[in-house]
Amino acid sequence: MDGAFKIIPISEDSPYLMLNPKQSKLLDETMRKTTIHFGLQKIKVACKQLNTLKKNEIGLSTTVIENLQIPLEVDYEVSIQNGEILIGPFIGILLANSRVILENKLKKLKYIKQSSLVSGSVIAFSWEGIDQKSSKIIGYIYNPSSKKWEEGTFPFPAVIVRRTALSTKRKKYLKNLYGSRFFHLASVNKWKMYRRLSSNKDLIPHLPKTFLYKKPEDILNHLKSFRTIYVKPLSGLQGIRIKKFIAEGDHYCVKYRRNQENNTINFSTDTELLNYVKSKFKSKRYIIQQQIDLEIEKNHSIDFRIALIKNQSGKWEDVGMIGRKGIKGSVVSNLSNGGKVKRAQTIFLKSLHLSKDEALSIRQKMSEIAIKAAEEIDKYETIYKSGVDIAIDRHHHIWLIELNNLTPGFASFSKVGLKSTIIKVSNSRMLYAKYLAGFPKEKENMGSD
């Protein structure tokens, strides 16, 4: 495999790295000694040439292999950073808390299709498999030859991808040990999201004014100020439990979706409205948000979703966008509530009546705003993908609605033929892990030619 090496054990008591003469030229001529890293382990070695090695082989003395506990079932890439050598990537997937659940989840782990992207050692393990005293892990390594997960004992990897819920204490331990190299899909509620995004002055003009719901009078007061508001659960998904309040003269109404139907309740007085709010919003886990006029087509709200991923260069990348058109009279555009998905370009040209140049310009601005927002959230949480809900009003002003980091939901992209977006999103987790493990895309690894 191009760029990958087979590690050959060499019977030597001293710690040596041995290279084919053509490969050794890639190292600095003065580099007679260096440090090899494998996961969190490292050892100092001397470097020398060995003519019997092939161009796609690297020789390590058995003492180095034993010291670093390098599995030999797989091929590795080699990265040179600051004069030191990384062998890997060595990625750990924390899949469960217990070994029993790990074995069940391992059968469903969709890694086989991605194995050719990563190379190196990929181990799946549970929290129970971690031995903190010896810095070893009992888990399973993926063997690309047999296409099976094989049980073994391994050193701590270079990066850990969390794919299970953990207690605060366990997360703190791994966060302290790995820093940003321990990553996952982070759940950030809508109020925290707004507070973090509004700390960036460039994003403020694109954020609907948002308030934390504390008491029933909050809804009434903001409704009188804005005339139309949305009340959303802090951690809601798919438009569930979102209600739209409208002030019409001295009367009020609330609109919402339930059981795939539009519903409206009218109130004649402030008291009637307050009694309704008291009965429906007891938990106080809601936000109040000013309405944005997204009714580009009569009785249909329209917004967009941008798919963002962290790529193998560690940068946020916009890999696609779709438009979503809500069902007639609906307060939300989500597909789960009857909405339809369309290509963004179609909506730009036909619904917004933009020229191709105008559409291209607005699309670029939307991408820039979405990436800036993801970078802002990234200051607090190490995330690698996000579904950014973004919209354009009648005056072509861009509004940032929400970032969905925990369950971004990109399956709808395939409905409009954007399968390449699905593939890029699917591969992003392991490619970003590869970057964190010390193997960025732009970094020149030791190639085999």
TrEMBL record:
Q: Which Pfam families match?
A: ATPgrasp_YheCD
Tell me the Gene3D superfamilies matching this sequence: ATP-grasp fold, B domain (3.30.470.20)
The identity of this protein, by name, is ATP-grasp domain-containing protein
**PANTHER family the record matches:** BETA-CITRYLGLUTAMATE SYNTHASE B-RELATED (PTHR21621:SF0), RIBOSOMAL PROTEIN S6 MODIFICATION PROTEIN (PTHR21621)
Which InterPro entries does the UniProt record give? YheC/D (IPR026838)
Q: Which residues form a coiled coil?
A: none
